[in-house]
Specification:
Layout: H1 4-7, H2 26-71, H3 73-76, H4 106-142, H5 144-159, H6 162-172, H7 177-187, H8 190-203, H9 207-214, H10 219-227, H11 232-255, H12 266-275, H13 284-318
Helix pairs in contact: 2-4, 2-13, 4-5, 4-7, 4-8, 4-11, 5-8, 8-11, 9-10, 11-12, 11-13, 12-13
Length: about 325
């Protein structure tokens, strides 16, 4: 058996053929070591891929669970979240997570809140990804003055304190999750733009892009048919991580009382639990469960994003 340390050893520490004691066997030694290196790299790559697949599978299962809970919340919730019962009921057989200060069933609130929380996360991430992708593609493909102008605008947006600005604007405007999602989408595209630009600078110099340009295809045709498909593997992880960031920001803003009180979200549930006696009275099932849902959803998104990025790195090493 070859030890794990030897299997994952880098090629630099492998003995060279010149180190064979018998000069007549140098070629044989060289073939043997190169075969060992190939086996070692294959085993290490297979082990890494298997680990990434396990992470992505766990993340995907959690992600689908939350999406199904949001889509079928009316069927899954035991009660209407606005229906009133006796306030401050402890968890029991009828109300698994008890009731809040208004007598609403907390479990039903938790299930219905998934819709708003996921909507804000997806809407903000989709808007930020679209803006960042377009800016990155144009800056990376045209370069020159176009690149300088677009990256200059990107640098300006990078210097804006995003969360404080959203808090200030949300406090002056009518509380609405639409406004929160639009503000986050309009401010959080900068990192996506930089990543897409970096990848576009590499792709535009490849042979198939040069061939398309030589055949007379328009720039827009080349950007959206040749360059964009070869940047999707860096766009998808940024989209997933943007969802997680947007959900955390929405929960923070709602916790500060700047969310829409007429709509139920996980952040709003935590805010009501802290302002209406849930924390002081020790009703941990009121404020801990939405916090746990936020943590699990962010975890599943991050797992999928990291697994996607690691899979791409593994594919590049194998190539």
């Amino acid at each position: 058996m070859i030890p794990d340390a030897t299997l994952c050893a880098s090629p630099e520490i492998m003995p060279e053929a010149a180190e064979c004691p018998d000069e007549n066997k140098r070629q044989c030694c060289k073939r043997e070591y190169s075969r060992t290196e190939r086996i070692s790299m294959s085993l290490c790559s297979a082990r890494e891929v298997l680990r990434m697949q396990k992470m992505s599978l766990v993340g995907l299962l959690l992600f689908l669970s939350f999406v199904l809970m949001a889509v079928f919340s009316e069927e899954l919730a035991p009660f209407d979240p606005w229906m009133r019962f006796e306030p401050y009921l402890l968890p029991g057989s009828e109300h698994l997570l008890g009731t809040n200060d208004m007598g609403n069933d907390i479990l039903s609130e938790l299930i219905y809140s998934t819709r708003i929380s996921l909507f804000v996360g997806f809407a903000a991430a989709l808007m930020a990804t679209l803006i960042g992708t377009i800016v990155g593609l144009l800056a990376g493909y045209y370069k020159g003055m176009t690149d300088e102008i677009l990256m200059g605008i990107t640098d300006i947006f990078l210097m804006i304190p995003q969360i404080p600005l959203i808090i200030v604007i949300a406090s002056f405007l009518r509380p609405s999750f639409w406004i929160v999602a639009l503000l986050m989408g309009a401010l959080w595209w900068t990192s996506t733009a930089r990543v897409v630009r970096s990848r576009t600078l590499q792709v535009r110099e490849m042979g198939f892009v040069q061939a398309s340009r030589a055949l007379g295809f328009s720039d827009l045709h080349i950007i959206f048919t040749d360059v964009l498909p070869n940047t999707c593997h860096v766009i998808a992880p940024k989209f997933l991580l943007s969802i997680a960031s947007a959900m955390i920001a929405e929960a923070s803003i709602s916790f500060l009382g700047l969310g829409d009180p007429t709509m139920k979200s996980w952040g709003t549930m935590i805010n009501f639990a802290f302002t209406r006696g849930g924390f002081i009275n020790g009703y941990w099932w009121w404020y801990l469960t939405p916090g746990l849902c936020i943590t699990l959803f962010v975890l599943c998104v991050v797992l999928m994003g990291f697994a996607w990025e690691e899979q791409e790195r593994t594919n590049q090493r194998l190539e």
